[in-house]
Amino acid sequence: MDPDLTETFLQDAASVLGALEDATVQLWLEEGRPGALRDLAVLSHRLRGTAALYGHPQTAALAGVLERLLEGRAGFGAEVTSALVGLLETAQLCLAAALTRLRAGQSEGDVGLDFSRRGGAAQLGALLRAYPQSFRPVAPDGEAEAASSGPEASVPFAQTQPDLWAFFAPEARELIETLRGQLAEDQPDLNAMFRAAHTLKGSAAMVGLAPLGQLGHTLEDLLGQVREEALALARAAPLLGAGLVLAERLLDQAEGSSPAAGAGALDGAALDATQLDGAVLDRYAAQVQALLSGQPTGAGVGAGAGAGVGAPDEAAAPLARLTVRLDGEQLGALQQHVARLVTGRARLGTLLTQQRTLAEQLDEAHARIQQTIRDFEERHLNPTLGAAPAAGPQAAGDGGGAPDRAPRFADFSVLELDSYSDLNVLARSLTELSADLSEIRSQGRAHLAQLGDELTGLEKVTRALRGDVSRARLTRLGRATAPLHRWVRERGGLRLHVEGEDLQLDAATVPPLAQALLHLVTNAATHGLEPQDERTALGKPALGAVTVTARAEGGQLTVTVQDDGRGLPLAALRERALAAGHLSAAELAGLSAAQTAQLAFLPGLSTARSLTREAGRGVGMDAVRSAVEALGGEVRLDTRAGAGTTVTLALPLAQQIADVLVARVGGVRVALLVSQVQGLRPLEGDTAAAAGEGDPAAPGAVADLHALWGEVPGPRRSVARLSSAGGPVDVIADEFTQLEEVVLRPAGRLLAPLGYLAGTAVGAGGQALPVLNPSGLLAAARRPAAGAALRAADPAPRAQRRILVVDDSLSVRKHLGRILTRAGFEVLAAADGREALGRLLTGADPVDAVLTDLEMPHANGFEVIEGLRGHGPTAALPIVVMTTRTGEKHQRLALALGADDYFAKPADEGLLLRRLDALLAPAASRARAARPR
């Protein structure tokens, strides 16, 4: 077995074995015995399933014996408990010995024989003979358990497959919320809804939840008809909402939790976790098929969202939970950092108290200064305020007054007695206050230094904690690729090789990346790899190979998915793109092979000849691009005929907390991820020379942030070179100011369309910081030239041009007439080819362009083209074909006869107007000059 899979099993089995030992100890406590028995049954079932999944049948068999012995037990007396504990301890010794052998690289060994040698079989027989009533199979309500019921019916999927559930459940709930959110929108994104249903179906089938996969397939069928406009969304909404409630109930049942209130009903029957069986799902699928075929859907689904299978209730689904596995060392490191933070916080609290004491002393000193100054003012500046009343005769003769002091000092000279004036007193007081203030300042500086040291230490601890938390969020890439191995094993017919599964990435990246990889491997198996007999005839190995390679460098994770198949069918891609109305035949003819391959990312585009559970819906590559772009990454595709296809996913490895380099662009501050910065330099010369100033061997595209933000450049500017999946890009700003540690946030729905934004953050000063995406900047750097080319080709005003619409369908003529009239054209109409030729060849109705169908009575579109091209005055007239015939032979004939472009009917309005503008721009002046008015 693969060493990584063995290690995964050993970690999980060791965890289960430890929990079994703990629960066995709890059996001795009477109040904890029922719970311990339930735990022992669940843990035994979990170990049995995991061991069987990883190919250890004897370990699974022994765990199965324990499970069957313990399931459904409510409690025992002390005598039964003693015998049971002895049996459990013997079984656990055997299981531990098996794990030890596996850890040493050996097989599991003869677990059953070891159990018998240790006396386990004898203990089991004695226990059942001595206490037959205690171990009779019973259901949870105390009645006899049905013979057909088994452990799979009572133990939830989340407990039997915890690893798969930790990966699958958050993604599934997020997909359901996506569908529910879009359903509530005024203008829902049908492509996004279809992708979500498709992914839910595939992911559920991948992990083995067949009922949910069946439900996802039904939802996909329903949304497919809505997307193709065969069914109005308003009619499908009740069943869609009911299906989402069913999906939530299936997840609740798989998790082992109780469904929320208001689960809804199917044909009047309330739904609960125990009723979600095949019959319920079959009834729901039957109602969907009835709706799609135009038949009555039954009483269960009415006109409102409140009817049907589980109408959407107001209770929100549980939020997607991010789960990661931590080992003891990681938890210990986190605990140490937390302890250091607590200690640092306590020291900072002490220092804060000391600073408050100093502040009080300063307040007292300030009050003393004010009082001294007031006394001085009263004594000298306003002497009357502080003077004593004059001594009068009455006072002098008052026997109660103070005795006359003058005679006492009569014998002392001035030199023999120090005298202090008010100025002396003030000076001494100020001197004392100054000394006090100096002492307080000295203590304040010392405390501030201590505060600085503590903050520096706290910053170090915070950074260390940040690093450990970030590492705790990391998980192996193998979590995203493990479902691929299972999918390939179950499907067969190809070989899968994965490199780089030990790479670490953020756990939040795993679900969307796993979704993208599953789509890519499915596409490779379905579209890329030839059948075995065809491969043998070509000299290739009979089994096709798909290789997934991952590497991390420059702050990015790059994952390539490569197959050795036939390559993309470029002709089929062009045909499907034409039929879907994405591009016209002339635009498709101008695409290179590499550009044609990119058509695979268009929504709804599929080259499959038939609709299956794996292919034909045109959602795979579109879902890949959406998932990767949501992570701030990009997708590249390369294909070679007969040699296979390579798809490259480039994702940022930045964590939620990251170091950024702040740049100033005029009055705006933006941020660049430090992990993506390759170098800084001052800008010498103009913007055009910026790319050549760096590494001449690897010149990069130039993105001037001033132009992007509409800011005026300063006199001095600097350049930062950033790494991106598409190559280096040189970013110009006024200056790069400082490094900051920020918390990254997603750009959000409003800013998500701006490809040059990787997210947002809050700077140290509290202001918002846009965090730039190098790949988006690279695309933006190339956009101005294309925009200038488009502006240079602006056509003349449409109001000056006339178009003849030739079609035998009155509704088509009216529909196209409204579109073209609304766009500013003057529209003429002809019911067939003969009428069109009669009007144009005679010169009765000169026009600037002709828009014609192919299949028409009297004269078809080919004859119209041939007739106009053979007549001198109309030989250069732009002719556009719009028809339901999108086959290559029809296109070739029409273009060979002289048609300028070719559309599938009904054509996209924007595409039609864009191509007409492009065709009429060079001929507008010539046609107007020749046209009589």
TrEMBL record:
Residues 1-105, 157-257 form the HPt domain. Residues 802-920 form the Response regulatory domain. Keywords: Kinase, Nucleotide-binding, Phosphoprotein, Transferase. InterPro entries: Bact_Chemotaxis_CheA, CheW-like_dom_sf, CheY-like_superfamily, HATPase_C_sf, HATPase_dom, His_kinase_dom, HPT_dom_sf, Sig_transdc_His_kin-like_C. Residues 384-403 are annotated as: Disordered. One of its GO terms (molecular function) is protein histidine kinase activity. Residues 386-396 have a biased composition (Low complexity). It is an enzyme of class 2 (transferase). SMART domains: HATPase_c, HPT, REC. Transmembrane segments: none annotated. One of its GO terms (biological process) is chemotaxis. It comes from the Bacteria. PANTHER family: CHEMOTAXIS PROTEIN CHEA, SENSOR HISTIDINE KINASE CHEA. This is histidine kinase. It comes from Deinococcus budaensis.
